[in-house]
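User: Could you check the structure of this?
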Amino acid sequence: MAKTIAFPKTPKKPAPGTEPVPVIAIGSGLTLNGVIRTLGRAGLPVYCVCPGDDFVLHSKWYQPPLSGGCDLKPNGLEKFLRGLGFEQAVLIPCSDDWVRATITLPSDLAQRFLTSMATTEVVQCMLDKWRFNDLLVRAGIPHPETILLQSYEDVQNLPDSYFGDRIFKPESSLEFAMKHGVKGYLVHGRAEALAIAATIDYPIMLQEYIPGPPTESYFVDGFVDRHGRVCARFARQRIRMYPPFLGNSSLTVSISAQQVRDGLVGLERLLAHVNYRGIFSAEFKHDCRDGLFKLLEINARPWWYIEFAARCGVDVCGMAYADALGHSIEPVEHYQTGRSCTFLPYDIHACRALNRDNGFRVWQWIESWAGADDALFSRDDIGPGVAFMRHTGQIALRRASHWSKAA
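Assistant: Sure, the predicted structure tokens are below.
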């Protein structure tokens, strides 16, 4: 087991060669938890910037917060970093808002707080879904048909042919999800579309919904170094998701990259075209109507199942750390396939929905979980899972108390 290197609460300049450069991982939840576990197991000193009530605080690899780091907001990142005593550190932002804050840091801070990320222009293109759609059009990459609507009147003036199965999808996922609590709205006809259109902000995208079950969704995660080499490719297939249609994977399985070869060829052509660098997670939907893998989005950052990728042999966190420091990276050619991972709290809801709609049985639930990794619960780091369940239990008790009083 890798030795964990202790680092002082108030960092001081280490003597050359005596301590590894520390990591500052910024974000919350599953993604941040996976990042600090992966780097912590490698023996690297990792500091977190996250909300003060996050279950990540209960990880064995979580260290006491740096001064000013508790409940920090993205617009305060520059001031926070200027107040640190690090001569140098590696930054790993774990959500879109922290990615934006990181890529816009002044040059003097960027020279101290190193990253393995693409240029500001490229990352902004990945974050802005309409700009990303335009990039896919120009690069000739298969993707869902998408239009941009500027007003409610634009929705009203659309012909009936645009009101099959379509998704109202925001240009910025984060802000939309914070306001509406969903990634987007799936609509099935004109009346439903107009009702939703009256409640949302503009501009908004209206995107074709590609039919098919969750198992038609595929992901290619990986890493591109500063020389433009794709050093890692990790392919996985979605088995279940929650919420239905526009949710997140609740059960996923690692597969051979050959199974998504057609999509992978287009993805790597796109990454080379924009001179991409860093961690990426690309989502595809296989369209049974024409047999094409349609590229939906690329996250220019770590993702929920990043620790699972490392367990299968693809450690993109370690690659990002090494690349940020200018070290050479050994590409990963092989990884474990047929290995599954679940986020159990979500997958329980997904299984209940399947049971209600398709008669999915208890023994099938248990069989699908047997031998699966879990994105949250880990035998060598039980704190986050216990904290999550305790918090979930408290919410359930409060709801039960409210219902009993209401009755």
